[in-house]
């Protein structure tokens, strides 16, 4: 075989240009074909593609190409999630405007994405920082506001006292929670913030019927939304009679509530704190402000708290119980207050033991009696046991007690049935410059007024002065800040917060349909044909943010009458992650980052694509191995040599010809099934098997020309989605005038693919003693006879008749001696 004229760099540049000129991947509505909208998560324009981008995108591209060859009209677009913090940081650190930095990065990344050999339809590109895009981001904000889904309220934010600015979650680093820009420890501050009412769809977001999403994502979202059934119960403070409402999933344990815990931020903390406890409470509140919600809720962190000096009245028995504050109670869950039942809650039990608080048993398990003494640990069973020390409910079974106690609380006016969610409304305000302006102006008379549609987009001014103060330059840009009220024409000021970048990525799949359309966020005709997305691919790290936000967005759009679908994507597949050769996550600090441009220069894009799809299961990922890429490199060189060989058989062997045709059709079936299932690694492995069979046939020169040609042409068809450049070049060299990527996906003949013989395992008393070759369609009787006549089995049985023979067709014969 000869591979001397295989030049990946030359071939790949050639076909990039030809495909662009031909408009090969420009997709239009074609109702004669079934549609397939394939989508992979869009990148942030950081300036360079890393191997993680290749790992996410090239298998997605292979799947899209496969669907196209199967006869689908495939849309596979690409764009850039271009607003966000990195560009703003670059502006400060590099003294370059975020727009200039972002646009330069996009230009570079476009070229890199084209070098991948992807079938992206670049005429549908959407860039989220382009005014033609964020005009509709702002329009959506207004529509959500009209629907009662956007509102403004005071909320706690992380604040850097040195930069004098609030920080987004990703701007706070480290266990000590310091400002990413200047290193100063952050504090909490309350500001007016804009929210989207994601909780309005909490129940619907728990319904995954009709979508093919990974179970892991469903579980993560279900836990994130955190639906809890229980009761709202009202306690009163002993002094002042202030009402403190709590949500509990166990109202049946109310008689065991021996203390109450408020979040440090609870508005009644000041009212219930006594003079003697003021100093300790204030110090604890200050410490809690320094912590993140994640740290405060951590299950393995020791629970701490401070007694306020105040007491509450337990509504079911009238007993006074002490009121504490503790950082593990958060204001954004329930009502920021809990009733503590240490006998039947592990966290409360540990807290009560630490601070020597009463523990009253109100549920008795079947394995305990009065003589057993105090509980050694909390008893948390919900289905087993009876209530004790619980007034009129003492003696009833725990199972079913919740509903009975809840009904009684409602009758007494002391509580009500309730459903609570862990999901919080989406805080979308960002106190930074590089984001979509929120289309609101503030008028002294009319308050917050939306900007009229005909004045959208509210343009982000580019003539801003970036100073290392950390504050958004919009606050000091008079041309942007000062405006007039759309209602009365009086002087007004613009909102200087910009929107969370997740807002941009929540609806980008719709803008891809018609990025130049200016009568709405997308062309309804395009939407009616392409929507919803049929296959979405991306990382599971987005399960509880982006993937919840985009589902929320689609449901809101449905209720606005913009779409008819309940879900944005029918199917979802999560790829894994490429690790460094040291088996660690890639990072510049570790020095283990793989630069794909260097690999393309050395090996060619097809080889990089083939290795990415071969070296690991796509959903798992794994460590990069530089030496491993040489296997796919040899494979493609062999394919080149085989496809360009002047095959001339010295003779035709029927068996050899049948064997090659069998392998060809088996590989067609295998690769088809693998690509359906995103099993790219085994698809490449199967193609390597076909390569081996063709190499053997060429060396022997004993298969028919027809079988040889079929093997070569099928190899190129099957390889086309994985290695598009070499497949196209070899297809062209073989005299075909139309692109291989426009050919129909090959089918296989079951009869040709069927094996003539199979191997059966023969066991004696469950132990493997022989393997026998039999006809593929062997009967059970013939399989038994062949097994019993095998020399090794004859010797093992030593003339004795077997007690029983069990035949598992196609697999084994088990002899019970």
How would you describe this structure to a colleague?
- The protein has 817 residues and is of the alpha+beta class.
- The strands form ten sheets. Strands 10, 11, 12, 13, 14, 15 and 18 form a seven-stranded mixed beta sheet that branches. It has a four-stranded parallel beta sheet with strand order 2-1-26-27, with helices on one face. It has a four-stranded antiparallel beta sheet with strand order 6-5-9-19.
- Strand 7 and strand 8 form a beta hairpin.
- The longest helix has 23 residues, at 654-676.
- The two termini are 54 Å apart.
Largest sheet: 7 strands, mixed
Structural classification: alpha+beta
Low-pLDDT residue spans? none
In one word, what is the shape? globular
Q: Termini separation (Å)?
A: 54 Å
DSSP strand tally: 33
For the residues shown, what is the average pLDDT? 92
Total DSSP helices: 27
Brief digest:
The chain has 817 residues and is α+β, with helices and mostly antiparallel strands. The protein has 27 helices and 33 strands. It starts with 7 loop residues before the first helix and ends with a strand.
């Amino acid at each position: 075989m000869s591979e001397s004229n295989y030049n990946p760099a030359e071939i790949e540049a050639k076909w990039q240009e030809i495909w662009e000129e031909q408009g090969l991947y420009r997709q239009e509505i074609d109702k004669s074909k079934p549609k397939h909208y394939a989508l992979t998560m869009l990148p942030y324009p950081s300036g360079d593609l890393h191997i993680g981008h290749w790992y996410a995108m090239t298998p997605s591209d292979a799947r899209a190409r496969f669907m196209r060859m199967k006869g689908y009209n495939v849309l596979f677009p690409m764009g850039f999630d271009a607003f966000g913090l990195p560009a703003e940081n670059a502006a400060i650190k590099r003294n370059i405007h975020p727009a200039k930095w972002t646009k330069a990065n996009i230009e570079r990344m476009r070229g890199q994405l084209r070098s991948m050999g992807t079938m992206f339809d670049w005429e549908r590109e959407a860039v989220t920082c382009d005014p033609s895009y964020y005009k509709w981001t702002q329009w959506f904000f207004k529509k959500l506001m009209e629907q009662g889904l956007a509102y403004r309220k005071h909320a706690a934010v992380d604040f850097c006292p040195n930069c004098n600015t609030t920080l987004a979650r990703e701007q706070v680093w480290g266990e000590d929670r310091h400002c990413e820009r200047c290193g100063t420890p952050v504090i909490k501050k309350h500001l007016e913030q804009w929210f989207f009412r994601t909780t309005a769809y909490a129940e619907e977001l728990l319904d995954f019927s009709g979508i093919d999403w990974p179970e892991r994502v469903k579980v993560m979202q279900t836990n994130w939304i955190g639906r809890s059934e229980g009761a709202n119960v009202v306690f009163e403070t002993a002094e002042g009679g202030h009402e403190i409402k709590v949500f509990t999933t166990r109202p049946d344990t109310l008689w065991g509530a021996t203390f109450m815990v408020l979040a440090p931020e609870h508005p009644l903390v000041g009212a219930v704190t006594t003079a003697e406890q003021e100093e300790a409470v204030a110090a604890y509140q200050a410490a809690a402000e320094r912590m993140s919600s994640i740290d405060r809720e951590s299950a393995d962190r020791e629970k701490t708290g401070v007694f306020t000096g105040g007491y509450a009245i337990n509504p079911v028995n009238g007993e006074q119980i002490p009121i504490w504050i503790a950082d593990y109670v958060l204001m954004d869950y329930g009502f920021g207050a809990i009733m503590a039942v240490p006998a039947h809650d592990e966290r409360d039990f540990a807290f009560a033991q630490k601070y020597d608080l009463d523990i009253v048993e109100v549920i008795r398990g079947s394995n305990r009696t009065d003589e057993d003494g105090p509980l050694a640990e909390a008893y948390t069973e919900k289905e087993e046991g009876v209530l004790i020390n619980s007034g009129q409910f003492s003696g009833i079974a725990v199972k079913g007690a919740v509903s009975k106690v809840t009904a009684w609380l409602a009758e007494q006016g002391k509580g009500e049935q309730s459903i609570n969610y862990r999901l919080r409304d989406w805080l979308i305000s960002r106190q930074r410059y590089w984001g979509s302006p929120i289309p609101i102006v503030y008028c002294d008379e009319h308050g917050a007024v939306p900007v009229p549609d005909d004045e959208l987009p509210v343009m982000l001014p580019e003539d801003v002065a970036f100073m290392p103060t950390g504050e958004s330059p919009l606050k000091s840009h008079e041309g942007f800040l000062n405006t007039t009220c759309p209602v009365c024409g009086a002087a007004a000021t613009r909102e200087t917060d910009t929107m969370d970048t997740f807002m941009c990525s929540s609806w980008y799949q719709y803008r891809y349909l018609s990025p130049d359309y200016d009568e709405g966020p997308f062309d309804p005709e395009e939407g009616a044909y392409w929507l919803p997305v049929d296959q979405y691919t991306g990382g599971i790290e987005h399960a509880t943010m982006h993937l919840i936000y985009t589902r929320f967005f689609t449901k809101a759009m449905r209720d606005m009458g913009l779409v008819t679908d309940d879900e944005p994507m029918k199917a979802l597949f999560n790829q894994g992650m490429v690790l460094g050769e040291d088996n660690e996550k890639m990072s510049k600090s570790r020095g283990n980052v793989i630069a794909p441009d260097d690999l393309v220069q050395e090996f060619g894009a097809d080889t990089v694509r083939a290795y990415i799809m071969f070296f690991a299961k796509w959903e798992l990922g794994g460590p990069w191995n530089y030496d491993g890429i040489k296997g796919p490199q040899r494979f493609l060189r062999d394919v080149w040599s085989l496809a360009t060989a002047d095959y001339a058989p010295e003779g035709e062997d029927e068996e050899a010809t049948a064997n090659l045709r069998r392998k060809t059709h088996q590989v067609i079936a295998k690769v088809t099934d693998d690509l359906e299932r995103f099993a790219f690694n085994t698809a490449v492995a199967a193609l390597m098997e076909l390569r081996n069979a063709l190499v053997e046939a060429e060396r022997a020169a004993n298969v028919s020309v027809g079988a040889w040609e079929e093997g070569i042409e099928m190899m190129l068809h099957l390889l086309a989605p994985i290695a598009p450049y070499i497949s196209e070049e070899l297809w062209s060299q073989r005299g075909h005038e139309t692109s291989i990527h426009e050919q129909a996906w090959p089918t296989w003949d079951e009869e040709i693919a069927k094996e003539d013989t199979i191997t059966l395992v023969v066991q004696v008393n469950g132990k493997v003693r022989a393997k026998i070759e039999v006809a593929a369609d062997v009967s059970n009787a013939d399989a038994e006879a062949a097994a019993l006549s095998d020399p090794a089995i004859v010797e093992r049985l030593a003339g004795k008749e077997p007690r029983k023979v069990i035949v598992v067709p196609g697999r084994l014969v088990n002899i019970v001696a």
